[in-house]
Design goal:
Helix content is about 45%, strand content about 10%. By secondary structure, the chain is of the alpha/beta class. It folds into 2 domains: about 1-55, no CATH class; about 105-365, Glycogen Phosphorylase B (Rossmann fold), CATH 3.40.50.2000. The strands form 2 sheets. It has a 6-stranded parallel sheet, with helices on both faces. Helix 7 packs parallel to helix 12. The longest helix is centred in the last third of the chain and has 19 residues, at about 330-345. About 30% of the residues are buried.
């Protein structure tokens, strides 16, 4: 059978032939026909520059990424956005992200939903690498309306941007629970779970012994819903300590006195909402920037725990206990401190308040 460079490369990757510690001894020498030289560039690439391959083995995912300014000692390979996890550098999604990033540099300004005390070093790097752009960090965006209503003596109201109908009945259930006793679980509107993943999370929550409020939509389960065959122990455990709803008024839930932690997919909206309120997080990122967000939650801001790339029931059960009990005090202290900084940022004289006024003045100057 005649093969070429790409096929040979895939063979070497799939068989661990060019890496140490694989299933078989590493290939140290290749003997080839003088008329078939295609293995030479493959061997040079894989033998000398293994760290530059686009496809990483699981054992390489915990190596540090050293080429992102401001994040040299923070990000591991597994913390990079999910669109980097491709075997082909010409992947359509990856190339689209690259193209969009290039186009972003053509804008005269960047409006960013964050605040300086949260991501100051990153904002500094954005400024250095985009000298012709004005970055406007004006977050947390969703808090500005409440601050304006407060300043004008108006009653704050609950506004939801969700496409899903919220089940307010969960608030009454929360009212009946002890303070800080419930872990709120929601993986957002996009993430999907296989039935196996659903079962792993469900067992973990029930076996943790903690009370839980879990947002689970039927269309978020691959294959069409939870199904009828539910183990008795899960049904009984949920009746005793849990409540499952299709959708919930998230901000109201996070502010509720009975909620002690947030088990989240680390979407930025959910992350920033939790930061503003001061609720510790347990992070299970699903895709895109969520991988980076969860790393910052656990290792930079230290307001939660990161459990990416695993949904093993024993590990999740242990992590639920960690965030709700073992490490609760230290996480809560950090989370409340960050919440205080978030709320100061939008008050008069705060960094986001100042930047919002700068942005308004810029808009006026273009009229």
């Amino acid at each position: 059978m005649l093969v070429g460079g790409p096929q040979f490369r895939r063979l070497m990757v799939s068989s661990d032939a060019m890496t140490d510690g694989g299933a078989r001894p590493r290939v140290s020498c290749l003997i080839m026909d003088g008329m078939l030289s295609f293995p030479i560039p493959v061997a040079e690439e894989m033998g000398k520059n293994e760290d530059k391959l686009t496809f990483w083995k699981s054992k390489e995912m915990d190596l540090m990424v050293t080429s992102v300014p401001g994040m040299e000692k923070i990000l591991r390979r597994r913390d990079l956005p999910s669109f980097f996890r491709v075997e082909d550098a010409n992947d359509v999604v990856l190339q689209s992200i690259i193209e969009q990033s290039k186009r972003t540099r053509q804008a005269v300004g960047l409006i960013i939903n964050t605040f300086e005390d949260l991501e100051g070093p990153i904002l500094d790097q954005i400024g250095k690498h985009n000298a012709n752009q004005n970055p406007y960090s004006i977050g947390p965006l969703h808090t500005h309306l409440k601050e304006l209503q407060k300043a004008k003596g108006m009653e704050s109201s609950h506004h939801s941007s969700s496409f899903w109908k919220e089940d307010d009945s969960c608030i009454a259930w929360l009212d009946s629970q002890p303070p800080d006793s419930v872990i709120y679980v929601s993986f957002g509107s996009v993430a999907t779970l296989t039935r196996d993943e659903l079962m792993e999370f469900w067992y973990a929550l029930v076996n943790s012994g903690k009370k839980f409020l879990w947002v689970v939509r039927a269309d978020s389960i691959v294959g069409g819903g939870i199904g009828n065959e539910i183990p008795v122990e899960l049904e009984e455990g949920t009746k005793l300590r849990g409540l499952m709803v299709e959708w919930a008024p998230q901000e109201l839930v996070l502010r509720h006195k009975s909620v002690g932690a947030f088990f989240t997919h680390s979407g930025w909206n959910s992350t920033i909402e939790s930061i503003v309120i001061g609720v510790p997080m347990l992070c299970w990122p699903y895709f895109a920037d969520q991988m980076v967000n969860s790393r910052f939650v656990s290792e930079v801001w230290k307001i939660g725990l990161d459990v990416k790339d695993s949904c093993d029931r024993l590990l999740i059960e242990s992590m639920v206990r960690e965030v709700m009990e073992v490490k609760r005090d230290e996480l809560l202290e950090k989370a409340r401190g960050m919440a205080n900084m978030a709320n100061k940022a939008i008050c008069e004289g705060g960094s986001s308040h100042v930047n919002l006024n700068r942005l308004i003045q810029f808009f006026k100057s273009t009229a």
